[in-house]
Amino acid sequence: MLFCYLLLCAVQSMAQKAFYPLDYLNIQGVMVYSMRKAHNGVLWLATSDGLFSYGQYLSNTPSPDIFAKTTHGIFAEIHEDNMGKLWLREQSNHYVVYNPATNRTIPDDHVEAYLKHRGVPVRYDFRVASDSKGCVWIYKGQELWLLDVAHHHVTYCKIPKHFGRIVGIESVSR
User: What is the pTM of this model?
Assistant: First the structure.
């Protein structure tokens, strides 16, 4: 998948300006599971070797403590909230919340307390998605929370059991 993405970046029309000169990004031998372009223009890559970043606005590299506080340091998904924090899902289905502005993390063993403090009492095997406005959608079974971190607002919804459980959320921007 990464090869196809890099190939498409290389084949641009003359009128189109290259946004990321990806020929300078060296991640040979690393599996890339997810990529996310943050609101500030930084390209984040969730890989088998941790978190990589690439972009002109990045002034520091991810803290080594981001990997010390993960189960395996293998990230499978990246989501960004409306405060610029990255929600990183580990391959073990735990989450780490990373703030690139402060270069600090909320490790997987504290994310549930972080969410509970914000009005989302979810435990264990939950999933996260983010939408185009940076709101974080947290779901497990039939329960769904919409967390607007910037405005300190939580909306809760529980769907009836006969509908089944929520298995995924996809964000569509208009």
Answer: 0.74
Which strands form 43-47's sheet, in the order they lie side by side? 32-37, 43-47, 50-54
Flag whether pLDDT at 156 surpasses 90.
Answer: yes
3-state secondary structure the chain: CHHHHHHHHHCCCCCCCCCCCHHHCCCCCCCEEEEEECCCCCEEEEECCEEEEECCCCCCCCCCHHHHCCCCCCEEEEEECCCCCEEEEECCCCEEEEECCCCEEECCCCHHHHHHHCCCCCCCCCEEEECCCCCEEEEECCEEEEEECCCCEEEEEECCHHHCCCCCCCCCCC
